[in-house]
Amino acid sequence: MTLNAIFEAVKFGDTIEIESTNVMAGSAKKRYKVGRKTKLKKGTIEKITLSNVMNPKGVKSYLYKRNDKVRMAVGDMAASVKSARII
């Protein structure tokens, strides 16, 4: 399943597993609980808030969709998604 398909399919409360890399933490596979879906910039950008299942009060992660491309951020830092699946 592609990241675009996962972005469209998830709903509030779903759990997804994402393997990602970023500059500070390196590579990691984590489970996230899907929070709210919002629209930014008059609907041109969609955002999903993700909270870590193991540390729900920790830093939030985000999935952004702009121009049919989905990107991930951990806090305010970009992250590259290697693989993702809905659990």
Task: Summarize this structure briefly.
With 87 residues, the protein is mainly beta. The chain has one helix at 3-9; strands at 15-22, 26-40, 45-52, 61-66, 69-74, 77-86. Strand 3 and strand 4 form a beta hairpin.
Largest sheet: 6 strands, antiparallel, barrel
Give the helix level as a range of percent.
Answer: under 10%
Count of alpha and pi helical runs: 1
- Please mark out the parts with pLDDT under 50 across 5 or more consecutive residues, or reply none: none
Q: Find the structural class using helix and strand composition.
A: mainly beta
Beta-strand percentage range: over 45%
Strand order of the largest sheet: 1-2-3-4-5-6
End-to-end Cα distance: 12 Å
Instruction: Give the strand tally.
Output: 6
Summed up, the domain count is 1
What structural keywords apply?
6 strands; 87 residues; 8% helix; 1 helix; mainly beta
Topology:
Layout: H1 3-9, E1 15-22, E2 26-40, E3 45-52, E4 61-66, E5 69-74, E6 77-86
What does this structure look like?
With 87 residues, this protein is mainly β. It has one domain (3-86). It has one helix and six strands; from the N terminus they run αββββββ. The radius of gyration is 12 Å and the shape is globular.
